[in-house]
Amino acid sequence: MDFQVVVLAGGTSKKLVPLVSKEVPKALLPVANRPVLSFVLEQLELSNLKDLIVVVEGEDAALCVGGWISGAYADRLHVEVAAVPEDVGTAGALRSIAHHLTAKDILVVSGDLVSDVPPGAVAAAHRRHDAVVTAMLCSAPVSGPSDSGSSGGKDKTKKPGRYNIIGMDPTKQFLLYIATGAEVEKDTRIQKNILRAVGQMEVRADLMDAHMYAFKRSVLQEVLDQKDTFQSLRQDVLPYLVRSQLKSEVLVNSASQAPPEENGNEKNSSLNNHKTLSRILANASMPSFHELYASDHSGSSPVRRTHKCCAYIASNSNYCTRLNSIQAFMDINRDVIGEANHLSGYSFSAHNNIIHPSAELGSKTTVGPYCMLGEGSQMGDKCSVKRSVIGRHCRIGSNVKIVNSVVMNHVTIGDGCSIQGSVVCSNVQLQERVVLKDCQVGAGFVVSAGCEYKGESLARKEK
Predict the structure, then answer these.
(1) Where's the Nucleotidyl transferase domain (predicted)?
(2) Domains observed in the chain
(3) pLDDT in tens, 300-329
């Protein structure tokens, strides 16, 4: 389809500490004992989108991710791994690799997306509409989008808001208005004025931006070049393109020198222009919105040709979520061996679980439905595992209870331990009778016998 694909695979995200480390960057975090990045790569392969640039933050993380890809996908995909500086943001990451982008259209997808929505369907919709951007939207989880995170981030300024307010035309194909989290709080008054004037625009607060976008390359590069302060595709580039599609001569003239999309703090210019903007938006409910504003029409001011910003809305039956918080990590692991097990790539037993043939279970040990026990792992007698994923080559003693937890590879668990609602990273050692509830234990950590922890994050000091 002449699409180049850019997978933004992140680095060692602060929101996922202590799960991530120099040895295990975000892209390689296990979901059902597979790196999370594999879920995106397999969907791209199924859509025959095989020319990829995987962008990783930090040289060390890029080496880890590149090493894994070259082993797992050597004959299947054409992948170039590009390292970019940490914390450049999604727009900054694309800026860093802009010279590699040559195709007419670019599909950008987050490496932490776990979904069964075919990327090819988003690409096809983009081509069909000849859009400058097509954003994939999916149903927001009941608890609010996972990007609000529940890992207790202390930095309020960076924490995205819980809702996207999205305005679409009645055919649900064109994006007419979008505001993300913090903006919703800040600009509610303006937004109400616009919405009041646009009775027929469909406004949704139940959709999540899945961070899969198709862009017309020429427009994307122009925006990245001209707007060098833009850091985020979701919070800067997409809203900017949606606003600027409504640009008309009326709007430009009435705004004196500052049309809304040119002004960094657009609150004032939005107040000046919202009546004019509303007048344009009021016509957005007409089926021919984009055709109407693509040409001059008699009896009114000439309107500059608009570009099209489109939406691809995933079906409610699709699974679609991002691994961008510790809570999301646990939820996705539970889902992929549970209700969304079609994504796992594994065959489930008659007991609705996955126990590797090489795993060993002691007497009176039970592994319940929606559980996974990895290759070479051994469990002692009278153990109980419920709704949990256990990785490869773990050594688990007797009388151990594991509930709603993820245990990664090469973990040693002593007799009589109880692990509930927790993540135990690779190479951890839990000595006898350790009790963990709602904890995260970083790689290589040793928990002494008899210790009890609740709601703690335990990790070795980085050297």
Answers:
(1) 5-147
(2) 3-163+205-245+307-321 (3.90.550.10), 347-458 (2.160.10.10)
(3) 444 444 578 999 999 999 999 999 999 999
